[in-house]
Design brief:
Blueprint: H1 8-12, E1 16-18, H2 23-31, E2 36-38, H3 53-72, E3 78-87, E4 90-92, H4 98-108, E5 112-123, E6 126-138, H5 143-151, E7 172-176, H6 179-183, H7 187-196
Parallel strand pairs: 1-2, 1-3
Antiparallel strand pairs: 3-4, 3-5, 5-6, 6-7
């Protein structure tokens, strides 16, 4: 599946457009049997002044879907998603470098943080968005282990500087909520939205 631009062949066998380049989100949609094409969007992801974290992540998911919708004007719905980490009311996005990743992981070490994952669907009739919240507790992570983890390349491009579906799973002592939401797409909420927008999944 090409990322952009969409072609008639991309759309011929698709029931949905995924406005994300994330391989993890592609895997999760495939897991529940969705036929989709990919059209990633770059938007301004700056947080607005005094914007609550849950509103922020929901807005980004909607704006990604809307951006793809306006650019392609497809006849099928568009799905956007966004995921952030939240620790002590501080938003953890993607690390900019090694020092940033280590600082994030040291903050999360031996503590509990939240992962907010939003999914939105847009079509010609409007949009809907849902947000999942998951609590994740990390064991103690020594600094040298954080540095070694950075060298694997896995923290790059990951909210909170870790991937729960990869080596980062070894940091997790306890999880309460949506595992798939931490990966990047909460499947319970996604399934419900897909049903509302008449997008077939494994059940159809």
């Amino acid at each position: 599946m090409s990322l952009s631009p969409l072609t008639s062949n991309d759309l011929a066998n698709a029931d949905l457009i995924l406005a994300s380049a994330s391989p993890r989100r592609r895997d999760l949609l495939q897991q529940i049997g969705v036929r989709f094409a990919v059209a990633a969007e770059n938007i301004d992801e700056s947080q607005r002044p005094a914007e609550p974290a849950v509103d922020y992540v929901a807005r980004l998911a909607v704006e990604k879907a809307q951006a793809s919708w306006h650019r392609h004007a497809p006849k099928i719905p568009v799905l956007g998603a966004d995921t952030i980490g939240l620790w002590n009311n501080k938003i953890f996005g993607k690390p900019v470098d090694c020092d940033d990743a280590v600082a994030m992981l040291q903050s999360l070490s031996a503590s509990t943080h939240q992962v907010l994952s939003a999914v939105a669907i847009v079509n010609a009739h409007g949009s809907e968005v849902a947000v999942s919240k998951t609590s994740v507790t990390f064991r103690t992570i020594p600094v040298d282990e954080c540095l070694k983890y950075w060298q694997t390349g896995e923290p790059q491009g990951k909210a909170g500087a870790y991937a729960i579906q990869g080596f980062g799973a070894t940091f997790v002592a306890h999880l309460e909520g949506s595992y798939s939401g931490v990966v990047g797409l909460p499947l319970l909420e996604t399934q419900r939205l897909l049903e509302k927008f008449n997008v077939p999944t494994w059940q159809q």
